Amino acid sequence: MKQLKTQVGIVGAGPAGLLLGHLLHLQGIDSIIIEHRSLEYVVERVRAGVLEQGTVDLMRDAGVGERLLREGMRHEGIYLAFGGERHRVDMAMATGGRAIYVYGQNEVVKDLSAARVATGRPLYYEVDKVAVHGYDTPSPSITFEAGGEPHEIRCDFIAGCDGFHGVCRQSVPAADLQVFDRVYPFGWLGILAEAAPSCEELVYSLHERGFALFSMRSHSITRLYLQCAPDEDLAKWPDDRVWEELQIRLGTSDGWKPNTGRILQKSVTGMRSFVAEPMRFGRLFLAGDAAHIVPPTGAKGLNLAASDVRYLCDALAAFYRTGDEALLTGYSAKALRRIWKAQRFSWWMTSMLHLDPAASAFDRRRQMAELDYVTGSEAAMASLSESYVG
After folding, report:
1. pTM for the structure as a whole
2. Is CATH 3.40.50.300 the right assignment for the domain spanning 184-270+356-389?
């Protein structure tokens, strides 16, 4: 078995693990990152694409935001559409100039991967048989196989950044975890299309046929979503039907509708809210999707992961600098306070904009009144904007 030694062993090379590794590097703290998937798989997953102002600032300050600031699309507002009309929410005006940036998660991973390689610190892809050991002792370890050869990482701390299905949270006894879970009775049918965006900002639409979202990934690629059943059969959605439904749900009385084009990717994503508490178990810390999942309506998943690892890096840096464990002790409570606020916002956005199959006529009317209130009240728009931009 090949023996490795580091200060922080990081399981997972998605945005959370890579960003944590880079932030630790800037503090002079050594780490080893391992990832079950290939680099190509991690990079090519088309997932989150909206970055909060705080995430953008963090990446800029960490020296990995140059391409983001150059190529990312800054948005100072969003549209809420209902009753055939679009209503703009000016987030920048409501938050003192804060905004969001549209920049794909895969682009974030590219930037962070390049930064990791530039540091020369270890990064292993396509590892198997990952297991964590002794996290409740002063000397935890991680074992895995790379290229068929067994490895062991001896470290001071383990960061579980390995996602919802990863081994780190699953290594904790169920009795030590409290899990909060909600599965929604709908999903999103998402497409990536070779079509120039027809609107400069995101459009969230509630239609009598269901929710739809207009978004983008670049000046030539559009990202669109339709509410569907969580187990929707993609075979029932040929391209022509997808475009027809998008035109119906997103089209507004002023003549606006999304541009059409060649569909590059098509998938169905179920929606859930999930939180595991606490996020610290001895010397094992959970971050990102390993600890929480939010429905994508509020665009919070990647941003929560970024705030998790920022808090964790600060705590580890304080420990290595002074030996003080106060921030390590407080990590879980601090992260969870923000996580639950994001869960509330994501639930609220999801509930306001989707048709629940079990909803009554009263529920539908209340939903329309909620949208009417949000788009007609400066205070309500300010509240939405504060949560959305972070």
Report:
1. 0.95
2. no
CATH 3.50.50.60 in the chain, residue ranges: 2-49+104-177+278-349
* Catalytic option among 22, 25, 300, 354: 300
Please count the helices (runs of H) and the strands (runs of E) in the chain. Answer: 12, 21
Q: Where in the chain is the domain with CATH 3.30.9.10?
A: 184-270+356-389
State the pairing for strand pair 77-82/85-90.
antiparallel
pLDDT digits (tens, 9 = 90+) for 12-29: 999 999 999 999 999 999
207 is catalytic: no
Q: How far apart are CA 350 and CA 344, in angstroms?
A: 10
Ordered DSSP codes for 221-233: -EEEEEEE-TT--
Q: What is the fold of 2-49+104-177+278-349?
A: FAD/NAD(P)-binding domain (3.50.50)
Residue 123: φ, ψ to 5°: -145, 115
Active site residue 300: yes
Rounded Cα distance between 352 and 357, Å, is 14
Q: Check if 296 is active-site.
A: yes
Please indicate whether residue 357 is annotated as part of the active site: no
Structure tokens at 386: 């504060």
Catalytic residue, from 204, 225, 311, 320: name it. 204
Given 22, 25, 36, 75, which residue is catalytic? Answer: 75
284-315 pLDDT per residue, tens: 999 999 999 999 999 999 999 999 999 999 99
CA distance 255 to 15: 39
